[in-house]
Amino acid sequence: MKVAVIGVGHVGLTTAACLAADGHEVVGLDDDEARIDDLQEGAMPFYEPGLDDLVRAEAKAGRLRFSHEPAEAIPGAEVAFICVGTPTRADGSPDLSAVQRAAATVATHAQSPTVVAEKSTVPVRTGERIKQALALEAQAQGGASAHEVVSNPEFLREGTAVEDTLRPDRVVVGADTERAHAVMRRLWQPLLDRHDCPYVATDVRTAELIKHASNAFLATKISFINSVARVCERAGADVETVADAMGHDPRIGRAFLNAGLGYGGSCFPKDVQAFLHIAGDLGYDFGLLRETERVNREARLWPVAQLRRLLWNLSDKTVAVLGVAFKPGTDDVRAAPALDVIEELSAEGATVRIHDPVALPNVRDRFPEVTRAEDVTSCLDGAHAVLLATEWDEYVQLPPARLAQLLAYPIVVDARNAWDADALRAQGLTVARVGAPQVEVLPGL
Ligand code: UDX
After folding, report:
1. Closest listed residue to residue 78, CA positions, set 13, 152, 11, 24
2. pTM (2 decimals)?
3. Topology of 2-202 in CATH?
4. Measured between alpha carbons, how far apart are the two ends of the chain, in Å?
5. Looking at CB atoms within 10 Å, which of 31, 190, 342, 375 has the fewest?
6. Does ligand 1 come within 6 angstroms of the Cβ of 10?
7. Where in the sequence numbering do the catalytic residues fall?
């Protein structure tokens, strides 16, 4: 099938490449000309494992093209995906102006009835607004809209976006007509033929809600375990063991019960805020999500409190922060917990050195005064404490003896519970872990 993908950010580019891999003829459209030029040259706009190879292979096979001209992408497309950004406005609501512009682009350039598929995470009932935008645009051009609107949310994670899209847990499609459902079924049939997963067919509003409900639930799960961690610290219990034991219950499951710095990234913070706002607009106060957000903000302050406790004054101390990306496997620093930590440490007068295997260029402008270390060794060398903020493998695999040798003071704050605490202690290091009994620098204090 011929497919247009409007917006080639993380979601759009991954969707475009994976649809091409399943045999569709896809054009990625974006008004960012520099981005399109780069993609045409085979250069990726962001880091996503495996996506560069897939994009290049599909482009070479002629199934994937890129353009900033709607006239090259929209005419003839049976399905036009809207994958544009929906940034948060000051009041917490999502800014949907790019979604409306994308709808207008389809209305202006489509030459036959097109199924317009929302993939950007949008508030419930946005489908109706898109339909209205299509109708108004058609009317302005002296006709009537024959386009249909469906919701086809994605659940891809950064770092595993290709795998999540090629082999999803479920495909969710919300449509209000049989014809639109039939088109979307045809689109996803190659995927369903090679990969066994449920195909959830619903109405548009329900599909829109599934996405927000899923992300808000996962974020709440993380805040729940972070609250349990706070209780464990005070009670002298261990949150990892609590989470493992809880996870044995299939009704709970172990996934997303890792206490730490809380959630960041481009989705959870934005989606929780948006869902809270949407529910409020509909007359329901979803207070649980406000609490999810509060606990998440609190989780980000945990390492600074630990460093203050273990180092006393931070003003003349050097802290090595390992990791700035919001999670391993990505160079994305949007809403990354490490950024708040770096800011807070700097505000308290600490000298901060940071390292990340891929994300450092993305924080250059935000922290011009912070030392961006070229390698882990120079980051750690002579620092008074190390803070593990993102659990990259490269950090998790560091030999404890090396840490002990490089640090000026033997202080380790593991904000992701990723290091083997016993192995570190065996090297004489004092280790603060999330949701564990509090440690003191001097044994016996
Ligand atoms: C998320 C959803 O998982 C995905 O389905 C959706 O489409 C987009 O949002 P992503 O933002 O890539 O994906 O990250 P994810 O792997 O879900 O992690 C989100 C954040 O939660 C990260 O900051 C991570 O460190 C944190 N997290 C995750 C925890 O703190 N504890 C956990 O147990 C799991």
Report:
1. 24
2. 0.94
3. Rossmann fold (3.40.50)
4. 69
5. 375
6. no
7. 267
327 CB less than 6 Å from ligand 1? yes
Q: What is the pLDDT of residues 198-210, one digit of tens each?
A: 999 999 999 999 9
Query: With respect to CATH, is domain 300-433 assigned 3.40.309.10?
Result: no
C-alpha closest to that of 154 among 87, 216, 212: 212
User: What's the whole-number mean pLDDT along residues 224-235?
Assistant: 98
Which one, of 418, 344, 408, lies nearest residue 380 by Cα?
408
Domain extents for the chain? 2-202, 212-298, 300-433
Ligand 1 binding pocket mutation candidate from 222, 388, 416 (most atoms within 8 A of CB): 222
Question: Can 2-202 and 300-433 be said to share one CATH topology?
Answer: yes
Average pLDDT over the chain, rounded to an integer: 96
Q: What's 212-298's CATH class?
A: alpha beta
- C-beta of 267 in contact with ligand 1 (< 6 A): yes
Report the separation in Å between the CA atom of 392 and the middle of ligand 1, taken as the mean of its atom positions.
15
| Ligand 1 pocket, residue 271 CB under 6 Å | no
Angle at the Cα of 90 from the Cα atoms of 89 and 96, rounded to 5 degrees: 15
Ligand 1 centroid from CA 324, angstroms: 15
> Residue whose CA is closest, atom 14 of ligand 1?
157
pLDDT at residue 383 is higher than 70: yes
